[in-house]
């Protein structure tokens, strides 16, 4: 069962596609991510995001919509209740192991690593994370076809 926004015992890690889906106003995704952000504000408990995934949001938005839109997305992200977690040497090593063991994308491995390390639910539309198994709690968003 997916956690409910506002569940005080839950922490959430955002995969890049959660914010890209919000910015692109994807059906079924935007409203769910907005609810999580609102809950984070109300509870004074920021959502977590790897710095690698922060950068991923920017480059995906830039590639799809141009630099101006990417800079606007970055400004919006700066106002959100997000705690951006640095990718230090230890975190990078753990992410590399996850990438190798589960054949994840490199940036995805950082999202998974952060969720596992913090015991948090990973908010994502990417079904590839299911390869990690039951150790990784997923808060699934609707899949978006490119």
How are the SSEs ordered, and which strands pair?
Blueprint: E1 12-14, H1 16-23, H2 30-43, E2 47-50, H3 51-65, H4 67-79, E3 82-85, H5 89-102, H6 106-118, E4 121-124, E5 137-140
Parallel strand pairs: 1-4, 2-3, 4-5
What does this structure look like?
- There is one protein chain.
- By secondary structure, the protein is of the alpha/beta class.
- The chain has one domain: 3-Layer(aba) Sandwich (Rossmann fold).
- It is built from 6 helices and 5 strands; from the N terminus they run βααβααβααββ.
- The strands form 2 sheets. It has a 3-stranded parallel sheet with strand order 1-4-5. The chain has a two-stranded parallel ribbon with strand order 2-3.
- Helix 5 crosses helix 6.
- The longest helix has 15 residues.
- The two termini are 27 Å apart.
- The N terminus is likely disordered.
Keywords:
146 residues; alpha/beta; Rossmann fold; two-stranded parallel sheet; 6 helices
Brief rundown of the structure:
The chain has helices at 16-23, 30-43, 51-65, 67-79, 89-102, 106-118, and strands at residues 12-14, 47-50, 82-85, 121-124, 137-140. With 146 residues, it is α/β, with parallel strands linked by helices.
């Amino acid at each position: 069962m997916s956690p409910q926004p506002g569940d005080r015992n839950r922490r959430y890690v955002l995969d890049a596609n959660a914010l890209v889906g919000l910015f692109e106003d994807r059906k079924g995704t935007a409203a769910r991510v907005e609810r999580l952000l609102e809950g984070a504000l109300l509870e004074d408990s920021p959502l977590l995001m790897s710095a690698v995934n922060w950068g991923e949001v920017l480059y995906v938005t830039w590639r799809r919509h141009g630099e101006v839109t990417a800079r606007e997305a970055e400004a919006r992200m700066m106002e959100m209740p997000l705690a951006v977690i640095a990718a230090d040497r230890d975190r990078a090593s753990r992410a590399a192991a996850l990438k190798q063991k589960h054949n994840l994308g490199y940036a995805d491995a950082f999202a998974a690593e952060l969720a596992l390390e913090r015991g948090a639910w990973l908010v994502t539309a990417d079904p590839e994370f299911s390869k990690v198994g039951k150790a990784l709690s997923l808060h699934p968003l609707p899949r978006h076809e490119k």
